[in-house]
Design goal:
alpha+beta; Jelly Rolls; Arc Repressor Mutant, subunit A; 2 domains; five-stranded antiparallel sheet; three-stranded antiparallel sheet; 10 strands; DNA-binding; transcription
Length: 290
């Protein structure tokens, strides 16, 4: 059995008659995709959006954000997303793209930007000047989306690179000091986090991740603790508990089904893990959402 938070593909945002693409622009004149985003979901794409009018509420990994005019939204495939409320007059400029699109034939990796990390701040309120600058860049990207050109994909990729590098200092100034990866320890930690995002449901042994990174388990544990202040085991547990939280909010799933989905030996093992990590039993947590 596999009952998981759904993962939407970029093609789901497009009209059925359109050729599937790895880049999509959503503006006020675009057809609104009919996806049940009021329920938790994942995506295979990244999103950068700027709210111009209206309000919405966005949940990312159990954190809740208010989106309003001037709000910048930065979302990656590594997070669980949900839009519980969105005003009818919501107006935003948004671009969606896959890692394959932004990388092209090179090694460019969007995950090296701090705002795409799983534990980043995913909604920022921009100063008016920054919002105006980014709005202009997003509108330029929209224009290029609708202009036939022999090198349209290359042009869009270049503009997207510019947008990401424009966002980096804005995010750093509002959130944390610049977090460009420079040391071997930071590289190991970043790669560990990416592996956790991909394998946490089936692999909860540090030895698995250490083997993937070609280092010892002790070195991995010490490195992650040094860089993040948290033990590697905590990162693993948090990823599993987050998905368990989301699944427990679905009354159609039994606790036994959730335990099987997350690859626990049985319901009792899952219950002990969840209580140890969350401080409450799965049933107790579910009652809070009843």
């Amino acid at each position: 059995m596999s009952i998981r938070v759904p993962t939407y593909q970029l093609a789901a945002l497009q009209e059925p008659a359109e050729k599937p693409a790895a880049f999509f622009f959503l503006g006020p004149d675009s057809a609104v995709p009919h996806l049940p985003i009021d329920r938790p979901y994942r995506s295979n794409y990244y999103k950068i959006g700027l709210c111009r009018e209206g309000r919405a509420r966005l949940n990312v990994n159990l954190e809740s954000y208010v989106v309003e005019p001037g709000s910048l939204m930065v979302l990656s495939p590594h997070v669980i997303k949900q839009w519980p409320a969105m005003a009818a007059d919501m107006d935003a400029l948004s671009i969606f793209f896959t890692k394959e699109f932004i990388s092209g034939s090179g090694s460019f990796n969007p995950d090296n930007f701090a705002f795409f990390e799983r534990d980043a701040t995913h909604v920022l309120q921009l100063p008016p000047a920054a919002a105006k600058r980014l709005s202009g860049l997003l509108l330029a990207i929209e224009q290029k989306c609708h202009e036939p050109h022999a090198y349209q994909e290359e042009i869009l990729r270049s503009l997207l690179h510019i947008l990401l590098h424009e966002l980096a200092p804005i995010y750093s100034a509002q959130h944390t000091p610049s977090n460009i990866i420079r040391t071997r320890s930071q590289l190991i930690t970043a790669e560990f986090k990416q592996l956790v995002n991909s394998h946490y449901a089936t692999e909860r042994s540090l030895a698995f991740y250490a083997d993937k990174l070609c280092i010892t388990t002790k070195h991995l544990a010490e490195t992650v603790k040094e860089v993040t202040g948290k033990r590697a085991a905590e990162w693993l547990a948090e990823a599993v508990v987050l998905e368990a939280h989301v699944l427990l909010q679905n009354p159609a799933l039994t606790v036994a089904q959730i335990a099987e989905t997350l690859h626990f030996a049985d319901q009792s093992t899952f219950g002990r893990f969840f209580r140890r990590s969350a401080g409450v039993s799965p049933a107790g947590y579910r009652q809070r959402w009843a």
